[in-house]
Design a protein that fits this description.
Radius of gyration: 21 Å
CATH architecture of the largest domain: 3-Layer(aba) Sandwich
Distance between the termini: 44 Å
CATH topology of the largest domain: Rossmann fold
Number of strands: 15
Number of helices: 14
């Protein structure tokens, strides 16, 4: 039974339910069936695919955060490094290798927790970590119950299932997915939950007739849960996204939900009114992140916003304290990571602290700007 048959069997699904099926179903889901989906031979390209430099730079920021939390083993015996959406563990492996070279004392104190929904990817994590596998404290589908340290999520939230809505002359309607013939179609229906209207009101969204938009209720729940589990420490969230005022504006009137296959966005050439419905389970599905709402939810849970900025400025801040020759060997990779119009400006970084004050972090030392 394929995804179309599953939709036909279950009846019309919200877009969020469809995404959950197409991406995370343990038998049919896009992410569930592969160890790795990104890279030059995959469907999309991430900062991790540029090479180990991204992890090396993040290690510098994590080392500073760990020092703020307590600079010696007598202050904090262990520092948790929790990577959410860790895949097969490539990014954390790069971070730990950098710590072994630069901060061996930090490495001794680190306890790695890899959080990943795909059992297939989780099964590959120890092999990816290699001789650093002894630092892996836990690997599972859920965040640790309670921890103190640093939570890192790189391109996690943009892949969370979203509800899609359309503003009509008769009011707000939700988009549903139903099976028709051999394929899938998007149809309008009533809102599945009043939480959608509450979310949009909170974000200050003023949708006009003809506009479509996405609402990520899952991200709200995830942020609230993560903030409560973190007793003391920091969060580094890196993703595609915008402030709510831009996300819910005429510049994104068609919504941001899209699909990628072999580094192309089929929606750009498809004649399908909802091209993200094509080849379900075989393509990535993603929607841009509403950083305004994420930040507000985090602050409600006792967190402090340290900065919201482009990846360009975040990485330039981290690198600014390095000797001139430190990045020379990886100059091309660094340029790729910070290039405006590419990874540098499309990716945003939200830095949060809990019970750690509001320190001037290295990643905010160059410029705190979000384009």
């Amino acid at each position: 039974m394929g995804i179309v048959d599953r939709v036909r069997e279950r009846g019309p699904l919200t877009v969020a339910a469809f995404m959950d099926l197409a991406l995370y179903d343990h038998e049919l889901g896009y992410y569930a069936r592969a160890v790795q989906r990104s890279g030059r031979t995959g469907d999309f390209f991430t900062s991790v695919d540029v090479g180990p430099l991204f992890g090396e730079l993040l290690e510098r920021q994590i080392a500073e955060m760990a020092a703020i939390l307590g600079g010696s083993a007598t202050t904090i015996e262990h520092v948790a490094l929790v990577e959410a959406g860790a895949g097969n563990g490539r990014l954390s492996a790069d971070i730990l290798r950098a710590a072994r070279r630069r901060d061996p004392d930090l490495l001794k104190r680190l306890r790695l927790h890899l959080v990943e929904a795909s059992a297939t990817a989780r099964a590959a994590q120890r092999e990816t970590l290699g001789d650093l596998a002894p630092f892996l404290a836990t690997s599972g589908a859920a965040l640790p119950e309670s921890f103190e340290g640093v939570l890192l999520a790189n391109e996690l939230i943009d892949a969370m299932p979203v509800h899609q809505v359309a503003m009509t002359t008769a009011g707000l309607r939700e988009i549903y997915v139903e099976a028709r013939g051999a394929g899938l179609e998007a149809v309008e229906g009533p809102l599945s939950t009043a939480d959608i209207e509450r979310y949009l009101a909170r974000a200050g969204a003023d949708l006009q007739p003809g506009w479509r938009a996405e609402v990520n209720l899952h991200a709200v729940d995830w942020m609230r849960d993560a903030a409560r589990r973190l007793r003391r420490g920091f969060m580094i969230l890196i993703d595609y996204g915008h402030r709510a005022a831009e996300l819910y504006s005429a510049s994104h009137a068609g919504g941001t939900l899209t699909t990628f296959s072999r580094h192309h966005e089929p929606s750009a050439i498809s004649h399908q009114p909802s091209p993200w419905l094509e080849s379900p389970g075989e393509r990535d599905l993603t929607a841009h992140v509403d950083f305004t709402t994420l930040q507000a939810v985090a602050e409600e849970e006792g967190m402090t916003t340290i900065g919201l900025l482009d990846q360009t400025y975040f990485l330039l801040g981290i690198a600014s304290g390095e000797p001139p020759d430190a990045l020379a060997a990886a100059a091309r990779a660094f340029k790729t990571l910070v290039m405006p119009g590419g990874l540098g400006s499309t990716h945003k970084v939200l830095l949060l602290a809990k019970n750690a004050g509001a320190p001037a972090l290295r990643g905010c030392s160059y410029r705190v700007r979000m384009t």
